[in-house]
Design a protein that fits this description.
269 residues; alpha/beta; Rossmann fold; 5-stranded parallel β-sheet; 48% helix; 17% strand; globular
């Protein structure tokens, strides 16, 4: 009942690997579009949500705060999808959006440029130079995105449990390696893992509600949940926002208590 995240560059075989594993293991296969669709139920456009998980903050004037708001919705949608285990997410930053959750098998797939170019040409009907430019731009944007939001290098191997190179193995070979890794005790879906996911799901839902409410949408809060008690850390722009945070959080099912002792009012003038 494990959770697998697959990080990959554009057209690196991550989707094919996820679909292979889904069929072999009977796991739910989750892609970016599914998460965006679920997150958009809040009323935010799917196009804006896609930009938030694809482009660096400066794209088309998109601010870092705007991206923060949309990512709050994305994280809430992802945790809701995987909280019962038996799930594979192949999309950008799944291993970062689920950071702190034990027993998640964090996998990165790389593929030679020749293979990636071939897939782009086949699916997008690009020429060689267009395909190369497309791949390089997508990889560059993803690297900027993760650096800005998480302060890490997207390609850093220390962020992953497995790094597989499709230059010398097939999708099936890579899938078998992942299946073998899942048999290790450290990747079992334990009660501790389920509890951590439930708490992350609750904290993410509260953060998403803050991002949606007009009275708190200008805030960037660090939210944690433990046994139904939700704590906040961050800066308020107005003193009355502390009351609004409490109101919004208490309305979320599963919240039993609200702690805002680490929230401070910042005078910006």
């Amino acid at each position: 009942m494990s959770i697998i995240t697959i990080s990959r560059g554009t057209f690196s075989g991550g989707k094919m690997l996820a679909e292979y594993l889904s069929q072999k293991l009977g796991y739910k296969c989750i892609d970016r579009d599914r998460i965006v669709e679920r997150a958009s139920a809040s009323g935010v456009s799917e196009d804006n949500l896609r930009l938030a998980i694809e482009k660096p903050p400066t794209f088309l004037g998109q601010s870092g705060h705007t991206q923060y708001r949309y990512l709050a919705l994305i994280q809430a949608a992802l945790t809701a999808e995987v909280r019962n285990g038996k799930a594979i997410y192949h999309g950008l930053a799944g291993h970062l959006l689920l950071r702190g959750i034990p027993n998640v098998l964090r996998t990165r797939i790389i593929a030679p440029m020749k293979l990636r170019i071939s897939m782009v040409k086949n699916q997008l009907k690009y020429g060689d130079s267009e395909a190369i430019a497309y791949i390089e731009k997508m990889d560059r944007d993803r690297r900027k995105w993760t650096q800005f939001l998480y302060g890490v290098d997207w390609g850093d191997p220390s962020l992953y449990d497995l790094l597989l190179n499709l230059e010398s193995m097939s999708i099936g070979d890579a899938g078998e390696i992942i299946c073998a890794a899942l048999k290790q005790p450290r990747f079992e879906f334990t009660p501790e893992c389920k509890l951590a996911l439930d708490e992350l799901a609750l904290a993410s839902t509260v953060r998403a509600e803050l991002a949606l409410d007009p009275k708190t949408s200008d805030l960037e809060m660090e939210v944690t949940a433990v046994a139904g008690s939700v704590s906040f850390k961050g800066e308020l722009l107005r003193a009355d926002q502390a009351k609004e945070i409490t109101r919004i959080a208490r309305a979320v099912p599963g919240v039993k208590a609200v702690q805002i002792s680490k929230v401070v009012v910042v005078d910006r003038f």
